[in-house]
Amino acid sequence: VQLVESGGGLVQPGGSLRLSCAASGSIFSINYMGWYRQAPGKQRELVASITSGGTTKYADSVKGRFTISRDNAKNTVYLQMNSLKPEDTAVYYCNNEIDLTGRGVEYDFWGQGTQVTVSS
Fold first, then answer.
1. If we measure between CA atoms, which residue out of 69, 62, 63 comes closest to residue 85?
2. What is the pLDDT of residues 46-64, one digit of tens each?
3. What CA–CA distance (Å, rounded) separates 11 from 24?
4. Within 10 Å of residue 10's Cβ, how many Cβ atoms?
């Protein structure tokens, strides 16, 4: 299984970016999909998550600005980021908990990370 992220880059404060993370390989189902970020000198933190049932969770710092969504047919999770601030600058990682065989055992997979820089 491989998770491939895209959509990062440099954006001015107040701008928008949309991150994508596509999972490929031998996948039975994906329950949990999440986005995390890590800024220099800081611990990795949860940004947003979404379950297969559509339940979402957001960090307080991004509520009202970021939206997480998923396309189950494409095994892809998205993060729409609006009203970006310099403090959103970080490497963003996607995380999936994947059932490979349908037996109810889930494995944790991470993407390689994509840099988001918010600066004028």
1. 62
2. 999 999 999 999 999 999 9
3. 29
4. 12
| Cα–Cα distance, 24 to 31 (Å, whole number) | 15
Residue carrying the six token digits 């001015």: 12
Could you give phi then psi for residue 73, rounded to 5 degrees?
-65, -30
Tell me, what's the pLDDT at 80?
Answer: 98
User: Phi and psi (nearest 5°) for 106?
Assistant: -105, 140
For 66, the 3-state DSSP assignment is strand
Residues of the chain with pLDDT under 50: none
Dist CA 30 CA 50 (whole Å) = 10
